[in-house]
Amino acid sequence: GGLFTGLEPIQTDSLLRLIQLAAEDDRPGKIDVGVGVYRTSNGATPILSAIKKAEKILWETQETKAYLGMSGDKKYAELLKPIVFGDDLAQMDGLIGLQTPGGCGALTLGFMLAKAANPATRVLVGTPTWANHPPVIRGAGLEIVEYDYYLKGETRIDFDAMMAAFDAARPGDVALLHGCCHNPTGADLDAGQWAKVRAKCAEKGIIPFVDIAYQGLGDGIDEDAEGLRGLVHACDEVIVAQSCDKNFGVYRDRVGCLFVKTGSEERAKVVNSHIMQIARTMWSMPPDHSAAAVRIILESDELRAEWLDELDMMRGRIVDLRKRIASSDPRLAYIADQKGMFSMMPLSPEQVEKLRIDHAIYMADSGRFNVCGMADEDVDRFCNAVLEAMD
Ligand code: PMP
Fold it and tell me: How far apart (Å, rounded) are the C-alpha atoms in residues 37 and 341?
């Protein structure tokens, strides 16, 4: 037998299957709320004008495509620091920032760094979580300790279960946390819960690993980072996997950043040498194009303001749709309190399938749906169909 004859096929992500099913359905009135990108009311995912302008500047001014070096665009990472950490924390000693291919690259690099630092580290993961989190963590060779984060039927966070899991953690364990706009539930920790989480991390010696892929799409740039910044104040070491793919709308260009709070410049040098070693084996150097575009936006007051306006507009649409869905029935009122692109309907996979068959409404088997995946004029029809399925 050859190398591949013993391979068993891997079940494809059910979300990818859903995308295909939706694409094949040509019934009029189809509502595709499965896919996880921002959409305008007419179903488009447009390129932000701030990005277009930055790309034009880049095209006009870039003189070489020669290698930029292993750190990628250093200015890009420096300009992102105040956005993620705020002006004060951004100045702290020993804060590493490294450009990565998307949030995925930052997650992979961060978990591999944790593995290199302490092979026995375990990762606390609240479920449900983004489908790619567990494979990335296992791929880095780390053990996962799961706890229930969200009670779908009750449409609320199971904070007691979360705290029980943190109480049972060992010093040096890592806790994966969604910075904002929890995917897939939309259920973010409130300020009081964040305070308890950071106190617990500090007390138990748990290292927070914050995945922040939707900053600015919940309540606003600073508001969405409050939980993260509180952790950075409270804990000696913090890992952050950041993505610009959603808030700059550059999904396919893969723009992200890994940040590590190490505590000192001296420690940062050592940690950075490991990060570089790991990154070298995976992508050697991160792709340049849209990180450069993001840098150009952040360097210019004018383009920065334009980007923030466009981000406000995206967030505004998401918040409006949330309010409309929430006001359709008391059972959906929780949708208005949740953040970001996703929420979860308390539906069984059978009910989700019935929506697909009877109404051409496409959402994930879990009941996760993209709030801004539907057109304005489809909201009532969407709500009525979901409520009918719930009865
Ligand atoms: N984290 C979460 C929670 C996500 O939902 C995603 C993307 N869907 C990512 C990280 C990765 O984002 P990127 O496309 O930048 O790799």
Answer: 8
The residues pairing with 105 across neighbouring beta strands, listed in sequence order, are none
**Does residue 194 line the site of ligand 1, with CB under 6 A?**
no
Tell me if 111 sits within 8 A of 280, measured CB to CB: no
The two structure tokens encoding residue 105: 């690259």
The conformation of residue 287, written as its DSSP 8-state character, comes to -
Residue showing tokens 């290199």: 116
Among all residues, which ones are annotated catalytic?
130, 211, 213, 246
End-to-end CA separation in angstroms for the chain: 54
**Full DSSP string of 174-209:** EEEEE-SS-TTT-----HHHHHHHHHHHHHHTPEEE
Amino acid letter for position 140: A
CA of 214 from ligand 1 middle (Å) equals 8
Dist CA 59 CA 293 (whole Å): 10
Rounded to two decimals, the ipTM of the complex is 0.99
181: left (phi over 0), alpha (psi -120 to 50) or beta: left
For residue 109, the CA-to-ligand 1 centroid distance in Å is 14
The CA distance from 147 to 389, in Å, is 29
| pLDDT tens column, 256-280 | 999 999 999 999 999 999 999 999 9
Confidence label for 19 from pLDDT (cuts 50, 70 and 90): confident
Atom of ligand 1 nearest to the CA of 178: 3
- Which residue's CA is the closest to the ligand 1 atom numbered 6? 213
Cα–Cα distance for residue pair 318/340, rounded to 1 Å: 7
Residue 228 scores a pLDDT above 80: yes
Q: Where are the alpha helices (DSSP H) in the chain?
A: 14-24, 49-61, 74-89, 102-117, 133-139, 159-167, 191-204, 221-224, 226-234, 265-282, 289-299, 301-326, 349-359, 379-390
For the CA of 107, the nearest atom of ligand 1: 10
Omega prior to 128 cis, within 30 of 0? yes
Q: Are 248 and 51 in contact (CB under 8 A)?
A: yes
CA dihedral of residues 207, 213, 217, 222 (deg, nearest 10): 40
Stated length of the chain: 391
The four Cα atoms 45, 48, 54, 58 give a dihedral, to 10 degrees, of: 10
